[in-house]
């Protein structure tokens, strides 16, 4: 009989974010699939009451909280104490948490303290034949495995975007306060603030409906014999500004900066999609000036509808990798698209 702890931290406004609500849905489904199991919620934050109220109707038998100013911000040394305290208070055998940057840093350490085990990058959590299991991808999303463990407690970090977020009724929740005693050493690191680019300069947008990929072609010599990198930048930024699409890149394009060539200034290796880059999840994708080679397109595993614009009718997108290939000049097409968007 499993005791499932749904573990979440609050966002800066005290609420639970989308990824946390997705993990809650997964934890509820697992609890429903395992006869005799118990679902408990554990919350960490500066204050957790509004987060607890937000999930008051989720069916958890208890809502535990570690709340104090010390737990408001992400900090390994205090978060690990809070997680350990919550897992012990719940006597959790399975801990399900969203794979946020905050939990990704902490949960392996907490599992070690509890002599448990952890699996990260889970994309699904299942109950088959009365046994819990998780699915995750290996070898850059080429193979999917189902993982089961007998060791407890078992920590599972669930990737964002893999479950529909729980959106049940809010209410007034009774939170059981759990003590997480800290020493001065735990408080040695002080979070003095957060530096983040303004939203309109933030080009990686996991929640966007569209992934827009820019390839090295944007910086290459065009039919007039010249490169047009400045114009490429303008066209791409204009499109991103109008659509709020997420910006992906090929390796060739981001590597060019290392070679001192003219590149798109807002592009970094964080934008790289592919075998040695990321595997984002978006309903649609549009590749521009990108050849569509396998090490790149393997990162498109979770992009459902795929289109590409390339001058070359024999590019790799034409080999069954795109639903639609526009054999056209991306400069011309995207300028036209931007004009149509502006006229809307
Ligand atoms: C071990 C390994 C790991 C790798 N990992 C990755 C990875 O994670 N991600 C990744 O992206 N790559 C990766 N690569 C590199 C990958 O194989 C390709 O080299 C890379 O994706 C090519 O990038 P590209 O398509 O932008 O550039 P190119 O191959 O130079 O293609 C540019 C394209 O732009 C088109 N073009 C030019 N001008 C226009 C225009 N005006 N309009 C329309 N089209 C135009 C051209 O026809 C051409 O098809 C990896 C390679 C290896 C060996």
Description:
Helix 3 packs across helix 4 and helix 5 runs parallel beside helix 8 (330-343). The protein is elongated. It is α/β, with parallel strands linked by helices and 344 residues long. It has helices at 18-33, 49-54, 76-90, 101-113, 229-243, 251-256, 294-297, 330-343, and strands at 3-9, 38-45, 62-67, 94-98, 117-122, 124-128, 131-138, 143-147, 154-158, 175-177, 210-214, 246-249, 282-288, 303-310, 324-327. It folds into two domains: 3-187, HUPs (Rossmann fold); 199-343, Rossmann fold. The chain contains eight helices and 15 strands. Strands 5-9-4-1-2-3-10 form a seven-stranded parallel sheet, with helices on both faces. 26% of the residues lie in helices and 25% in strands. It binds flavin-adenine dinucleotide (FAD). Flavin-adenine dinucleotide binds at residues 215-217, 220, 222, 250-253, 272-277, 289-291, 293, 295-296, 299, 309-312, 315, 329-331.
